[in-house]
Amino acid sequence: MNPCTPRTTRTTLVTAGLTALSLLSLSACGAFGGSDGSGDSASPSKRNDITVGLLLPDDDATRYEKFDRPLIAERVGVLTGKEGKVVYANAGGSTAEQSRQFDRMIADEVDVILVTAVDSRAVGPDVKKAKAAGIPVIAYDRLAEGPIDAYVSHDNELVGEVQGRAIVDELSGKGEKGKVVVMNGAPADPNAALFKKGALNELNGNVEIAKAYDTDKWRPEVAKANMEKAIDAIGAGNVDAVYSANDSMAGAVIEALEEAGISDLPPVTGQDADLAAVQRIVAGTQHMTVYKSFRLAAGGAAEIAVARVQGRDIQFDSLTVDRVDSATRKDIPTMLIPVVALTRDNIQDTVIRDDVYEVKDICTAEYRAACASIGLTP
């Protein structure tokens, strides 16, 4: 599969994220309200009574149901004086089901579709059908093929670099090069290719990659089975670190390591700041995760979707200051959100500060002592 390749810089990443945050705040205060009337795919006659179709890919990653869906719905409500609504469907990891969901939303004449594709290439024909019906499509989190109007995500190569650097720093601190097992994401997800590229930028030459796997549909059970194969091949005591592309796979990897009798767990990476992953980090069983602001990403997607439907092209252009290329379209208007490496040292300054979790959510009875050891008390 041809991965979709962002064309941006690390400086642009930070600037875009800060610009997006400022603009979201301005919009919430009503600073944007006009339209220059020149936006293609927009319907200036439709104001607040709009319907946003939200298509999410699976329920394996807890973030989609727990954060993205309610945050997008909340923001659409704020932006439209509670007149707008979000209709939602989850594909359960099935490309065929997501295609059927696309068809239903087109038939129901929603005003705009936000989609996180199960398969970036397979969704292309569905995007074309929506566009032919006059419905703009915005790719959310994963870059979809086809004539999408905009893309909201993170610098995904940087995500992989942050993960890979965490492993290199940890092993170099021990004076080791180390054998690393690499657990990549789904081959059908173009983000996974970028995570992998970023991670390998850091790992290659600094560690020994003992085994590497791609993980069909990001399934934790697939990751666990592959980790068991890796342990059998290189020996339980010879795994010095595991690069896991996300948190749900990290949990499965750690299960496999523990079931193999490894009590002194090697560093394991993750992504998404799932609650279970944050608790594992507190307990010391997972080394780190990549925290991506769900609120900023979801809010940005809602802002862009509403601006597109309402013909607010000045706001749309201000929010999508970056450009990326997909396999089928060049210079896609894009909002990129900054990322942070979350460790035991900055839980308070990330997910708690941003109201993702409260201390009591993290520091349940099982984790109370570990929380107290790093200064987290309910």
Spell out the blueprint of helices and strands.
Blueprint: E1 5-6, H1 10-28, E2 51-56, H2 62-79, E3 85-90, H3 95-107, E4 112-115, H4 124-132, E5 137-140, E6 150-154, H5 156-172, E7 179-183, H6 190-203, E8 208-213, H7 220-234, E9 241-244, H8 247-259, H9 275-283, E10 289-292, H10 294-310, H11 313-319, E11 322-325, E12 332-337, E13 339-342, H12 348-352, H13 359-362, H14 368-373
Parallel strand pairs: 2-3, 2-4, 4-5, 5-6, 6-12, 7-8, 7-9
Antiparallel strand pairs: 1-11, 10-13, 11-12
Task: Give the tags.
378 residues, alpha/beta, eight-stranded mixed sheet, three-stranded parallel sheet, globular, disordered N terminus
Question: Would you give an account of this structure?
Answer:
With 378 residues, this protein is α/β, with parallel strands linked by helices. 44% of the residues lie in helices and 16% in strands. The chain has 14 helices and 13 strands. An eight-stranded mixed beta sheet has the order 1-11-12-6-5-4-2-3, with helices on both faces. Strands 8-7-9 form a three-stranded parallel beta sheet, with helices on both faces. A two-stranded antiparallel sheet has the order 10-13. The longest helix is centred in the first third of the chain and has 19 residues, at 10-28.
What's a concise summary of this model?
The chain has 378 residues and is of the alpha/beta class.
Strand % is: 15-25%
The helix tally amounts to 14
Question: Helix- and strand-based class?
Answer: alpha/beta
Mean pLDDT: 88
CA distance, first residue to last residue: 47 Å
- In spatial order, strands of the major sheet run 1-11-12-6-5-4-2-3
Number of strands: 13
Query: Helix content range of the residues, please?
Result: 40-55%
What coarse outline follows from CA principal-axis ratios?
Answer: globular
Largest sheet: 8 strands, mixed
Write down the secondary-structure element order.
EHEHEHEHEEHEHEHEHHEHHEEEHHH
The Rg value, from CA coordinates, equals: 21 Å
The poorly predicted ranges are: 1-23, 25-45
